[in-house]
Amino acid sequence: LAESTGQIGQAANIISTIAEQTNLLALNAAIEAARAGEQGRGFSVVADEVRSLALKTHESTDHIHQIIQTLTSRSERAVSVSRDGKASAEQGVAIVEKTRDALAEINQAVSMISNMTIEMSSSVEEQSNVAEHINEQIVGIADGAMETKSASEKALAASKTLKETITMVNSVIDRFQTSGKTSTN
């Protein structure tokens, strides 16, 4: 666009230069027509028309230059907006990439947490099995302790009975011994 407007500007400059030269030629023709007097009057009208066309051409080239300046200014603004848009797009891409990376990290963390949860669940199940086994052992020990207590109580009762029997036997022995001593005496 800048190259095209530059070429149009060059063409307008050439046309403007030609218009200035045509204006000078028309002025010289008017002077020569005035010098020629009555015979130059027709030539004078043509010179005035050529001069008028040269002025209009010069005004048109000035207008073309203004349009070129406006186009150049607008194209510079468009380029600036385009650059800003590109920068914004690049920032957007960077943000999207950061978001993607953050989501990937979150996904990894969730996967890790999921694996840890599975491991913890397995560990809790194992601990539950161990606790159940320990509980069964404790119940077995408690049952054994109850049996031992019952056996101990029976042994204690038997030992009391045995003690009483021994005491009675001793008493009987003592009586025999005492009665035997009295009879031998």
Give the topology, please:
Elements: H1 2-36, H2 41-184
Helix pairs in contact: 1-2
What's this model, at a glance?
The protein has helices at residues 2-36, 41-184. The protein has 185 residues and is mainly alpha-helical. The radius of gyration is 64 Å and the shape is rod-shaped.
What does this structure look like?
- With 185 residues, this protein is mainly alpha-helical.
- It has one domain: Orthogonal Bundle (Helix Hairpins).
- Helix content is 97%, strand content 0%.
- The protein contains two helices and no strands.
- The protein is rod-shaped, with a radius of gyration of 64 Å.
- The termini are far apart.
Q: Characteristics of this structure?
A:
185 residues, mainly alpha, Helix Hairpins, 2 helices, rod-shaped
* Tally of DSSP β-strands: 0
CATH class: Mainly Alpha
What is the domain total for the residues? 1
Output the CATH homologous superfamily: Methyl-accepting chemotaxis protein
Order of helices and strands: HH
Portion of residues in helices? over 70%
**pLDDT average, as an integer?**
86
Oligomer: single chain
Structural class: mainly alpha
Q: Biggest sheet, in brief?
A: none
CATH topology: Helix Hairpins
Low-confidence stretches: none
